[in-house]
Amino acid sequence: MSRKFDYLGDVEVFIAVVEHGSFTGAAVALSTTPSVLSRAVTRLEVRLGRQLLQRTTRRVGLTEAGRVYLEQARTAFSLLDDAERVGRGQEGDLTGRVRMSVPTTYAHYRLPPLLAQYSQRFPRVQVELNITNRNVDLIAEGFDLAIRLGQLPDSGLVARKLEEAALLLVASPDYLHRRGKPQTLEALQHHQCLPFIMPRTGRIAPWVFRDEGRDIDWLPGSTIEISDDVLGVVSLAEQGMGICQSYEFIVRDRIQRGQLVEVLPQLRGRSRPFSVLFAPHRRQSAATRAMIDLLSRQEGVEG
Known about the structure:
Layout: H1 8-20, H2 23-30, H3 34-48, E1 53-55, E2 60-62, H4 64-87, E3 96-102, H5 104-109, H6 111-121, E4 125-131, E5 145-149, E6 158-171, H7 173-179, H8 185-188, E7 196-197, E8 207-211, E9 214-218, E10 226-227, H9 231-238, E11 244-247, H10 248-256, E12 261-263, E13 271-278, H11 286-296
Parallel strand pairs: 3-4, 3-5, 7-10
Antiparallel strand pairs: 1-2, 5-13, 6-11, 6-12, 6-13, 8-9
Helix pairs in contact: 1-2, 1-3, 2-3
């Protein structure tokens, strides 16, 4: 009698190739050769009668059948991981891997203490942290979860709000000494502003204010525009190059040290949400569920 699941090694190869983006990358991770992995994926495709990967000379992409199979395969392996822990009596001893994508703001200023806490509780879980402001495709790129900023489009993903992050204007003492401190929103038009270009739209992110209960969205104009990494506006402001709007949790310590000064504090009151996203139809591994739970419990946290 032949074993029903003797092809699971080929499935693991398929998942590895997708997650590493190429046969070469997966071969390095698995200590083998690209040709061995290519034969394994071909065997799997023949078994299923469907093409799973679109191969090019540099990278591989998923076909629609490959996307569906990838999701089901990941779910099956997470079930096997959980079953093995239960069988060994290690329900509390999590293993496995969590792949997460996080923007620069949260990765540098919110996540480190949470990851330290997670790693202390679950030292056998491997965490792969992708720090980017690009909106990754969780399913196609093999991420278990992502943290994202702002009002999220209807993507079919589940979103749990982590916090409402307060915004404020800041500039360096040197800049304010040279240019003066604006006292009104109208006066801000005569200052050097440091706007950020939103990666999703390619447009300037409006600065948001609240004036006597009225919400205002204001587009800063400037001879300098920053894209990709929003932390760049803070770095330039520190060097006396202008005024920027940033999150309080980023600039709080700089204000306390005297490196930055708050501008127009009477217009504070607006915020933007950070959320953790994950696919609703994918059965999360126990390690991923533990990470989502830890992040979600931090709503309203003060750093």
